[in-house]
Each structure stands twice: as C-alpha cells, then as structure tokens.
C-alpha cells in the first residue's frame, strides 16, 4: 500500500466531507423531482415543476433541520445505540494514563472516554471537533488486553481522530439515514395514495419509487464505501507510528478477531465505526458485505507484522 502522509490524509478527509455535503442536496433534489415526475399520471412538465417548486423548500428545510439535530447530538445517539457510558478516572486509571500519555506525545487534546459493559473486544472513536471527540472501549478489550496491546488499540482510535476519519464517518452515517427515511416515506406515500386512486398508474408510480430508492440506496452504499477501507490501514499505520510497537497492535487484533461482536449494537451504520465490524454468522456472506468499509483483519495483521 502506498504511504500517504498524515497531513495529506487530513486534507483528503476534509475535502471528502465538504464534497459529501455539497453532493447530498443535489442528489436529494434530483430524487424528489424524479419521484414527482414519474408518479404524476400525465407527466405534464409544467405541473411537475409547479409541484416541485412548492415541495422542495419543505424537503430542504426538513432535511437541513434533521442534519443539524443529528450533527449536534450524534454523540448522544451513538451512546444510546451502543449502550456506552462515561468511564470515570477513578474507575480505571490505567486507561486514562494510556490515553493521556499518547495524547501528550502527539500534542492532542485528550478526548472523552466511554466504556461499553460487554465482554467482547472492540473499540471506536467518534466526534466532529475537539469538544465532541471521544474514544469508546468495551470492558472486554480493557480487561483482556495487555498494556502494550491496549495502547495500540487506543492509538489506532486516536489516529482516526487526528486524521479526521471520524468526522467523515459521522457525515456519511447521517446522510445514509436521511436517504433511507425519505425513500421509505416516498414509497409509503405513493403506495397508499396513488395506488388507491388508480391501480395501473399507482403500480407504475410504486415501481418508479422503488427504482429511485434503489439508486439512492446504492449511492448511500457507495458513499459509505467511498470513505475507503484504506482509512483502517492508515489508522493502523498511525498507531504503529505513535507507539513504535506494531507487533502490539497486531497481537491486539488477533485477540479482537476471536470475539469482536458487541451484542447491544444492532445498527450497521454505528457498527462501521468500530475497529472491527463483525457480522453474525448468518450474515457473513450477505451482498452488503461487498461494500464493507473494513478490510479483512487478517490482512491488517499481515501488514503490521511486516513492520515488527
């Protein structure tokens, strides 16, 4: 894998975040217009344009409010989705010492620290700025890893924060959620509206909404995939650079690989934040895994072993 400097990675992630924010309203407006046009029986462009002009301001305002609320309270939403809680210093000074020492060495502000009361091994970082950046660790990963291994995991998550990977991930999660909700509402609206008025045209309208929804969902998957699996390789490399102990993170990943599934987490969008995004046995060969944002953990270990 070609090495990419930290500053280059930060600039790339900031640019991609801006690009997503600019592309989203364009795709959203195009989706609304397509639904209105194909669900309108006569396909009268003037009628469609008039309806579009009346509807689109409400769509933009509604989604903007949604995005703003999600942007402001995303940490609370993630905590609810993962069942995490703040880890107090007196509860585990070991974790705080590891986090603070790494942050001091990198000139970083110490993020908030949370814990998930689960015996499985996993961790993730989240946040959009220094006030909201956080590192969350499962109780299992704290209890079952040696100091060097846990330090490597924490360094991996701090690399995500330093590279601004977490901001890009939060933006993509919010956008995917909005697309999914609008597609669902559009389908239900036409299903119970147009179909009841005219079965033939209603059926066509439903088909159109399904196609448009499928396209938008594909775009959402591509946005998720566009975040790039390379971010995990970069975070692994960043952790090795911080700690000078690539072998420690490789050892931690071997232990994580055996039991990474956090039972309380059911959202695939939130699960992609974790250092390893596991799938239940019955879903390991699903189509959606083709768009996984995580590379195989075995390949990550192989790369780290090369530096050991």
Structure overview:
The protein has 308 residues and is mainly α. The protein is built from 12 helices and 4 strands; from the N terminus they run ααβαβββααααααααα. It has helices at 6-39, 45-82, 93-106, 139-144, 147-163, 165-192, 194-197, 199-226, 230-243, 246-258, 268-271, 297-307; strands at 84-86, 112-116, 123-126, 134-138. A hairpin with a 7-residue loop joins strand 3 and strand 4. The chain starts with 5 loop residues before the first helix and ends with a helix. The model is unreliable at 282-288 (pLDDT under 50).
Task: Describe the structure concisely for a colleague.
This protein is mainly α and 308 residues long. It is built from 12 helices and 4 strands; from the N terminus they run ααβαβββααααααααα.
Proportion of strand residues: 5-15%
Gross geometry: elongated
Estimated helix fraction: 55-70%
What string gives the helices and strands in order? HHEHEEEHHHHHHHHH
The whole-number mean of residue pLDDT values reads: 80
Assign the CATH class of the largest domain. Answer: Alpha Beta
Determine the CATH superfamily of the largest domain: Metalloproteases ("zincins"), catalytic domain
Overall number of structural domains: 2
How would you characterize the largest beta sheet?
4 strands, mixed
Radius of gyration: 22 Å
Distance between the termini: 17 Å
Instruction: Supply the helix-strand structural class.
Output: mainly alpha
Give the spatial strand order of the biggest sheet.
1-2-4-3
CATH topology descriptor of the largest domain? Zincin-like
CATH architecture of the largest domain: 2-Layer Sandwich
Low-confidence regions: 282-288
* Count of beta strands: 4
Number of helices: 12
């Amino acid at each position: 894998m070609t090495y990419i400097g930290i500053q280059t990675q930060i600039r790339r992630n900031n640019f991609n975040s801006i690009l997503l924010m600019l592309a989203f309203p364009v795709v959203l407006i195009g989706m609304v217009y397509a639904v209105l046009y194909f669900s309108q029986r006569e396909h009268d462009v003037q009628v469609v344009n008039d309806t579009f002009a009346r509807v689109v301001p409400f769509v933009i305002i509604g989604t903007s409010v949604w995005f703003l609320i999600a942007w402001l309270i995303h940490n609370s939403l993630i905590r609810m989705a993962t069942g995490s809680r703040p880890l107090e210093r007196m509860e585990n000074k070991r974790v705080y010492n590891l986090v603070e020492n790494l942050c001091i060495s990198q000139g970083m502000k110490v993020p908030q620290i949370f814990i998930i009361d689960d015996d499985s091994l996993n961790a993730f970082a989240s946040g959009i700025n220094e006030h909201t950046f956080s590192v969350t660790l499962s109780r299992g990963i704290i209890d079952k890893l040696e100091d060097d291994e846990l330090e490597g995991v924490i360094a991996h998550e701090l690399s995500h924060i330093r590279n601004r990977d977490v901001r890009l991930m939060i933006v993509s999660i919010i956008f995917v959620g909005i697309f999914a909700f609008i597609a669902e509402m559009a389908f239900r609206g036409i299903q119970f509206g147009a179909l009841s008025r005219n079965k033939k045209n209603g059926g066509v309208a439903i088909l159109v909404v399904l196609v448009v929804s499928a396209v938008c969902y594909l775009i959402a998957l591509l946005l998720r995939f566009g975040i790039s699996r390379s971010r995990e390789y970069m975070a692994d490399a960043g952790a090795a650079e911080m700690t000078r102990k690539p072998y420690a993170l490789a050892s931690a990943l071997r232990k994580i690989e055996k039991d990474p599934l956090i039972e309380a987490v059911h959202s695939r969008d939130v699960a992609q934040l974790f250092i390893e995004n596991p799938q239940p046995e019955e879903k390991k060969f699903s189509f959606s895994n083709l768009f996984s944002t995580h590379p195989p953990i075995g390949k990550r270990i192989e790369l780290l072993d090369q530096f050991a």
